[in-house]
Design a protein that fits this description.
It is built from eight helices and four strands, in the order ααααααβαβββα. By secondary structure, it is an alpha+beta fold.
């Protein structure tokens, strides 16, 4: 899918969420949905399988998101699946999250950690990263046990790896 098409879907999603007054909430939910889809190859295949009727794929989305996401988020994800763009769904959702943040003068920092971060830890991390990068950031967290300890932060194309795994790898290379 072209970048223009991904951005077009993302812009539409952000416009709807902002018009409803729930932009940041929907962005958080879209981020979570994108990560869940990335973790499940079966779900990726099902949502992008055009031999499955669009109504069935939409129902799968609605069933999966029921109670865990707002009706607006569910409708936006369902709309993308209905237009046979399920294979590009994570890219579209990530673009929507980034565009929503940009509309508030922020960039997205994806933070992976082995354990969930508290609100206070996220606030302090956002302050420290914003100060270090000179950019106003919104933090999106992902629990990833492969990190072992510490955090791995991605801001745009830059990766800041402060994980225990990375440090152990560096020690091994030094020996």
């Amino acid at each position: 899918m072209s970048v223009e098409r991904v951005n077009g879907y993302a812009e539409a999603m952000v416009a709807v969420a902002n018009a409803e007054g729930v932009g940041p909430q929907v962005e958080d939910e879209l981020f979570t949905v994108a990560r869940a889809i990335e973790r499940s190859e079966e779900l990726q295949m099902t949502l992008s399988d055009q031999s499955i009727p669009a109504a069935r794929r939409q129902q799968i989305v609605e069933d999966l998101l029921a109670g865990g996401a707002s009706p607006i988020t569910s409708a936006l994800v369902s709309m993308v699946v209905a237009t046979n763009r399920g294979g590009e769904l994570p890219s579209i959702l990530d673009a929507a999250v980034a565009q929503g943040a940009r509309s508030r003068g922020q960039s997205v920092a994806e933070v992976r950690s082995a354990v969930p971060l508290t609100d206070e830890q996220q606030r302090r991390l956002a302050e420290a990263l914003s100060k270090a990068t000179g950019t106003n950031l919104t933090i999106k967290t992902v629990v990833d046990e492969s990190v072992l300890g510490g955090i791995v932060t991605t801001i745009d194309d830059e990766v800041i790896d402060g994980s225990v795994r990375h440090r152990l790898t560096k020690l091994r290379e030094a020996f």
